[in-house]
Amino acid sequence: MKILIADDHELVCDTLCLFLSQEAGVAVSVAGDFHEAAQKIVSEGPFDLVLLDYSMPGMNGLEGLRKALELNLGGPVALLSGTASRAVAEEALASGAAGFLPKTLPAKSFVHAVHFMAAGEQYVPVQLMTVHGGEQPNALAQKLTKRELEVLKGIVEGLSNKEIGRLLGLQDVTVKLHVRTLCRKLSARNRTMAAMAARDAGLF
Q: Which tens digits make up the pLDDT trace of 161-171?
């Protein structure tokens, strides 16, 4: 069984490889970002299973998933996430993902999930999809004001500060202040990282 694990955190890759190294007949390749993962799928694939970190560089939300599915010739591609959001999981599965795995998944469950998905089934932890109350308040959204959410939506959609200002009727300087505040609240170094944090939390 050929598996590709793509994650920009070396410790995560090492840990997941360790889980799988105890399985007979499993060969694991690793990549540190989506660009490298795409190259490996083309040069070494198709893989029996590709595991992509949802928030690693180059993923661009679910665009990375769709591209990987295409490059892997329709072979199973699943997402890993450190902040498992039900909304993102549902969208990923609807987009053709073989599964959605929280990085907190125990080793035994992770190995089971890998075999399950490689066999052509969809996997997602039951507890993730059976959160009580249905539409629970998004934890990240609760930290932001209505206006900050509107500005963040514009950033996620790739709009410039001027375009966001025109859309919301705000001065450029006001938009810049909101962007700065958003970066601080989201612990993001720049607007691109803020957009990634929003996507990873399932906000948009």
A: 999 998 888 89
Instruction: Annotate 12-41 with DSSP letters as a single string.
Output: HHHHHHHHHHTSTT-EEEEESSHHHHHHHH
| Number of H-type helices and E-type strands within the chain | 10, 5
Residue 5's DSSP bridge partners are 30, 51
The predicted-structure confidence for 148-193, as pLDDT tens digits, reads as follows 888 998 898 888 999 999 888 889 899 999 999 999 988 888 988 8
Pairs from 26-33 (Cβ < 8 Å, separation ≥ 24): 26/1, 27/1, 27/2, 27/3, 28/3, 28/4, 29/2, 29/3, 29/4, 29/5, 30/4, 30/5, 30/6, 31/4, 31/5, 31/6, 32/6, 32/7, 32/8, 32/56, 33/6, 33/8, 33/57, 33/58
Please, which residues have CB within 8 angstroms of residue 75's CB and are 6 or more apart in sequence?
45, 46, 47, 48, 49, 50, 69
CB atoms < 10 A from the CB of 33, how many? Answer: 16
pLDDT at residue 133 in the model: 42
Cβ-proximal residues to 177 (8 Å cutoff; 6+ apart), any chain = none
pLDDT in tens, 49-73: 999 999 888 998 889 999 999 999 9
136: which DSSP letter?
P
